[in-house]
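Subject: Sanity check before I submit

Could someone independently write out the structure tokens for this chain? I want to compare against mine line by line before I put it in a report. The sequence has 180 residues.
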Amino acid sequence: MNDECAVGDQVSGANARDPENGPRAYISFRGQVEPRWLDVNRHMNVSWYDHVFDIAESDLFEVFGIHDDYIRRTSYSFFRLEKSVRYERELMPDAKLEARSVVLWTDLKRVHHFHELWNVDQNYRAATVEGLSIHVDLRLRKAARIIEAAVADPLTRLAEEHARLPWPKGVARRDFRART
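---
Independent answer below. Compare away.
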């Protein structure tokens, strides 16, 4: 999981499904706005939003088996093709944060993912990130389909669970699948 910041649940994927209420977004980060994250305006600097979203994305990918061991063992990884950030509201010192992440779809070569950063103290969404990532054979430096069942199966299950959720507000790209 992660480094200096608090992150999502310790059991990978454990919070992706709520037995009583059905599927829900994966909680990929939990923490609070640290003093060093503040800028001259005394709110969270945009570079720290990016930092938190990077942690959230990495944590989400760990749920379906993309981690350092997988990359070293297989010589496959993910590269981000596109990223779109929307800053909606500022985050103030000590605000408790939660990133909620969903897999919008996958074709086992590409993963379209969306992350929301919430101020849990005041219950508002502060920012979103939408991304498209591609699975890459690092030896060839080319896109490659996921063939390992230990990664493909949990990714497919997570995408199927998240497909049952309402489409998140703010997703700019309805369908990356049309791209080659």
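---
OP: Matches mine. For the report I'm noting this point. The first helix runs from residue 46 to 63.
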